[in-house]
Amino acid sequence: MTRPAPVLDRRNVLSRLFPSTDDMLFISGLAGPARDAAQLLDDGDNLFTMAGTMGAAVPMGLGVALAAPERQVAVINGDGELLMKIGSLATVATMAPENLSIVCLDNGCHGETGGQTGHTSHRTDLAKMAEGAGIASVMVLETEDQMDAAAKFLVDAPGPRFLQVRVTDGPPHPYKRNFDPAYCRTKFRDAFLGRR
After folding, report:
1. pTM for the model
2. Strands (DSSP E) along 107-160, which ranges?
3. How far apart are CA 169 and CA 131, in angstroms?
4. Are residues 153 and 139 in contact, defined by beta-carbon separation less than 8 angstroms?
């Protein structure tokens, strides 16, 4: 089975899904999702971007959500890295933090290693996997006319929430983020503690 080709440009999605970001904490996965999230937040204090930790965004976001139940937490990751640690969705469902949203930018390919076709371009269905894991609320965003409903889903649906966003395989934002691990850790800690 081959799915219909995606039509959404990943570079235009996050700003529509998260029109207000100041009161939230963000964890992003690697590479493309990290650049897209850094562009959205101007690499702000409330964003922790991953590097060299494929598959760690969801577990880290879960930990942040459990440690800060009064804050909304969003994980932004890609389909390839989510599949690297797909079992983390079961842990999210079991722990059931109501303040956690997982947004998977699914371009159906492995953009960082040469654009090889990924599993979600064929038979693998991440939304069904999230439902099977027991995630409370699951939605798939595929077209422009679903965008407002998806943004509302991230605010109003019972948590934890999983939003699969099927995007084209075009490039992410070219944003150059700060890779200094000590600086990134400190600024996010301060945002987490409400110091910034």
Report:
1. 0.91
2. 109-110, 116-117, 137-141
3. 25
4. yes
Please check whether residue 180 is in contact with residue 46, taking contact to mean a CB–CB distance below 8 angstroms: no
Strands (E), the chain: 24-28, 47-49, 72-78, 100-106, 109-110, 116-117, 137-141, 161-166
Total domain count, the chain: 1
- Indicate which CATH number applies to the domain containing 165: 3.40.50.970
Write b or e for each residue in 87-113: b if 16 or more Cβ atoms lie within 10 A of its Cβ, otherwise e.
ebbeebbeeebebbbbbbbbbbbbbee
100 domain-assigned: yes
Q: Which of 37, 21, 72 is nearest to 165 (CA)?
A: 37
Q: Which long-range contacts (CB under 8 A, 24 or more apart) does 37-43 make?
A: 37/76, 38/173, 38/175, 38/177, 39/11, 39/14, 39/173, 39/175, 40/14, 40/15, 43/175, 43/177, 43/178
Question: What confidence tens digit (pLDDT) does each residue in 105-154 have?
Answer: 998 756 666 666 665 666 789 999 999 999 999 999 999 999 999 999 99
Residue type, 101: S
Name every residue whose Cβ is closer than 8 Å to that of residue 175 and which is 6 or more positions away in sequence.
35, 36, 38, 39, 43
108 part of a folded domain: yes
| Domain range for 88 | 10-192
Tokens found for residue 58: 């969801």
